[in-house]
Amino acid sequence: MPISVKDIVWIAGILEGEGYFGLNNNSPRIQLAMTDLDVVEHVKNIMEKTKVISSHAEHEGKDGSRRKTRYSFTITGDLAIQWMMTIYLLMGLRRKSKIRELIHHWKINDGKLRIIKNLKKLGLSQEQAEIQFLEILNSKS
Question: For the residues of 65-113, what is the DSSP string, one character each?
Fold first, then answer.
């Protein structure tokens, strides 16, 4: 079933307030972490049903107070980039800036991996392929 515009707008709102946009092992990542399991499950069901929700059990805070169980959901790589592009226009300035930074990082690193892989197929060593990639990158600027 296709994702509705209403769902996309809702996801953007949740991620604007509670989301994290960053890198995980050099791969773009979107993470939602909060104490409302029903909300995290709803986000998961819209964004990627097959992903797993992690939970961090109730614990005692530094001040001795009890902390609720926290639930988190993470998507990475191409799927995270697709969602960033989908919600970009709905986000605030700070999130837009971070999304642009992550998309730029993804373009360079994903492209680098593909180019180096293809250069190695042509018989270049890893080091030669990386040097060739830098020459290609510098010639485009």
Answer: -EE--EEEEEEEHHHHHHHHHHHGGGS-HHHHHHHHHHHHHHHHHHHHH
